[in-house]
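note to self: dont lose this again. the chain is below, predicted strucutre after it. 122 aa total, dont forget to put it in the shared folder this time
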Amino acid sequence: MENHLSKEEILFFKNDLEEKRNKILVNLKNSSQEVNGCQSRTVRDESDYASFYQGINTYKSISEKQTQMLKEIEESLSKIKEGTYGICEMCEEPIPLERLKVKVFARYCIHCREVVEKQEGL
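---
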């Protein structure tokens, strides 16, 4: 299927994806360094202990979400190279430009996304 996006649009999305990827990589690196710094601090009481583990759990949750987003960004960048970016993975129809502007690494058109969410019980 021929891509419905212009070269300029694809370049715009590629640049946006690369920028998002770079920000996530910096965030993950900074968060990791912050956690490592926290681990070297002395825990003095239960309050310090609770605060430390709450911070670790928050970091892990954010890190998992950012790692998943990074994976989706990398998949979209691969699709740009393959010439399949902006094509729904389910129905193989073009994903509307407005949807891609909202979610640059969208894998499905709106209709198919709803079907996937129902199947996943979301």
